[in-house]
Amino acid sequence: MPADQDCEQTTSITALKQRLKGIKSWVSRLANEIETLTAETATAVIVQVKEERLRAHFTKYEECLLQIISVDPSFDMDVTVEQKYMNSLVKIKQLLSNRELSKDEKPVSDPISRLPVNLPPINIPTFTGKYTEYKTFIGIFNAVVHKDKRLEKIQKFYYFQMFLQGEPYNLIKNLPMLESSYDEALKIIDERYNNEFKIKMEHLNLLLDIQPLTKTNAPILRQFVSTIKQQKAALKNLNIDIETCPMTLCVILRKLDALCSREFQLTLDTKEPSLSTLIEFLDKRALALENSTAAMQLTKPPPASSGFNHRGRENNASATALKAIEDPAPGVSCLLCAEHAT
């Protein structure tokens, strides 16, 4: 085996073993949590959610283990993981079969009420920790999940974790899968990212750091205007009105190219223009660029053909005939007088 291939295989096995270790810790932790559940303290929803998470992680554990064994057949498997998994499934079955599982459970005769409630098929954008996206994320989550009275808190907590990624998820990933953890998770994320001053600064930075217009065409100008509109609306929701702010207008004007800036100045009929005036001008300019580009494409002459067309053959034939009249070859009859050329 070549040295490079051997090195890559060693790196792959190392990465798989690290992943296996992480999954094993999740399975062990869930198994320990399930072991501490009792019929007096656990509800059916809690037990079902923990069972789903346990089965999902154990499936990942088996897949990772098979990959390692396929590369390294001598790998020593840890049988305690499977033992914990089986013991946990037995405990779950015992808890769910116990009629005294919880005092607030629905009667067994009502099977519909015992079915888990599924979220509607709405895609909530994943929150990755950007301050400018927190208000939008938490607003959508509250409307779709938090205010849904059909969902238990434990289910809301489960879905809340699903819509977090990166640092936000790491902040709450170690909370136990309990109903009380839902409120605690909301509080942790809100205290971390609901920083109004930081959010305002981020929106202002996005506006101030917008790329200058060095080459004006319709798509670039549309993107330029879209960024201004987005940040203007976001800042207005934060009670910051930049409509008539001279500093903001000055910064944006300096981002325009010389021709665009000069044309805007010529359109002004007031001494104090507003941001809306500039946006309206840029929208009209973008539309004009789009229309002129489309017109140029329609009036553009077709490319020259490399072959001979019908008119080209006619022209060539006329030129040949004219040459024969003016300079006939010796011994060839004249085409007009039918006499032999001398």
Structure report:
The chain is an all-alpha fold and 342 residues long. The chain contains 13 helices and no strands. The protein has three domains: 3-103, no CATH class; 131-194, no CATH class; 198-298, no CATH class. It has helices spanning 3-35, 44-71, 79-97, 131-146, 153-162, 167-172, 179-193, 196-208, 218-237, 246-253, 258-267, 275-299, 310-326. Helix 2 packs antiparallel against helix 3 (79-97) and helix 5 crosses helix 7 (179-193). The longest helix has 33 residues, at 3-35.
Largest sheet at a glance?
A: none
The quaternary organization reads as: single chain
- Strand runs, count: 0
Derived from helix and strand composition plus strand pairing, the structural class reads mainly alpha
Q: Domains counted in the coordinates: how many?
A: 3
Residues in β-strands, percent: under 5%
Gyration radius over CA: 37 Å
Weakly predicted, low-confidence segments: 99-115
- Overall mean pLDDT stands at 75
Order of helices and strands: HHHHHHHHHHHHH
Shape: elongated
* Number of helical stretches of at least 4 residues: 13
Share of residues in helices: 55-70%
Tell me briefly what this model is.
The protein has 13 helices and no strands.
Keywords for this entry:
64% helix, single chain, 13 helices, 342 residues, mainly alpha
